[in-house]
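Morning!

This is the sequence you dropped in the shared folder:
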Amino acid sequence: MSANLFIGIDIATENVRAVAIDATATVYARTSWPLAKVATAGDKRLTQDPKSWVIAVENVLTQIGEQLKGDGKNVKALSISATSGTFVITDQSGSPLADAAMYNDGRSNSILGRGEKIIQQLNTAPPYYLANTPEFVIAHLSNTPVINLQSDTSHGLKIGVDLENVKYTDHALTEAARLNLTLPKLTLPGSKIANLSDKFASQFGFDQIPIYAGMTDGCTAQISAAGASGCVTSLGTTMVIKAVGRENIKGASFYSHLLPKDSFLAGGASNIGGISYQKYLPDIDNWSLKAEQFGTANIVCYPLPAVGERFPFLSPNMTALQSGSASNEVEQFRAIMEAIAFTERYSYELLGNAGAQVSDQIATVGGGGRSDLLSQIRATVMGKKVSIMADSGSDIGAALLAYAATYSLDNDLATPLSQIKIAQTKSFTPKADQVAALERNYQRFLQLTAEYKS
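The structure's back. Tokens below.
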């Protein structure tokens, strides 16, 4: 029996991941390839060679093609997800004029501000062209000049996009014009951008499949865990939170992405997460067992690994906070676990107060979902069911977008996505005997972070 497959590619910071799935999200092939290391400099720049993006994508698609060799596997479409805010400035031919600026490049707090810093150091005359990661790669895969390709509103959002009218804000257009910088034309996620070139179709063993506009990695991670409904917490190095709603809500530390045609993914990314307990990871099971036996911590903290926070507190000067000294290392570890749960609860309360629909179940993706202790604390702190998804990730979410785009009517991605049943491995519910103690600590956490509240 033949299987129609959909490929998703996620271009992260350290590697590119690719997956081929069917309409039930069953994985048929999966692989990854490393990217060039991120380079730093004294002016706080964080850059990467964008040519490593296309090299890595070529390699993962070649490997996917090899894994899918045989009868009955028909690749129908492809979509690409990437890190929000990473971009490259090119000339009219699409050749990079400088290395790509990463999402957390420290030369400016805005994309166009970083663009200005790059342009000031160029020896090339204008015009200049800004390309987000996906369209730069799609230009290569489709043999199309990048300046002729569209960019989805999700990857363009941090430049400044009016989602209601699918256009850049007046401020973004004014700033780009001042810099002689041409911004990519905008389109909605799920729109067809190009076709795979004949050369690469032959190389990978596919037809000249359509390449559909994707969404940023935080959005595709959400889609991989909950389709087009519910709330998702992605617990990786950092913590990314998304809630689906019908309103385009925004605040000082959060904003919404449009999931066509009338759903919005609202949320943000915190700088705390797995990085906050990184030193405990080699023996995480042992620490978790001891922390579970210890019980609720007697201190509260906000375990920022460096200066500055994005969400749910927007403060470039925020530092790690702690109410007192831990009695021992076990209590310190326990306090960090609780702090992650407290931050998650506050984030969902912030989104809910702004109009997001916060579900009774929180789907969880990422490495943090492997900690039963953390999952249990989160369930008790939030008073919600916490579910760990069986297989998820931004690559799977991108593949699901390719599927939805293939079968959508009137660019309605939410409907086909809502029909997919996402598998779970385990779930956690609140522990009644810990609710009161953790609630007391949550109130102390709110006091500790009060001066930074949005």
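Headline: The chain has 13 helices and 25 strands.

More detail when I'm at my desk.
O.
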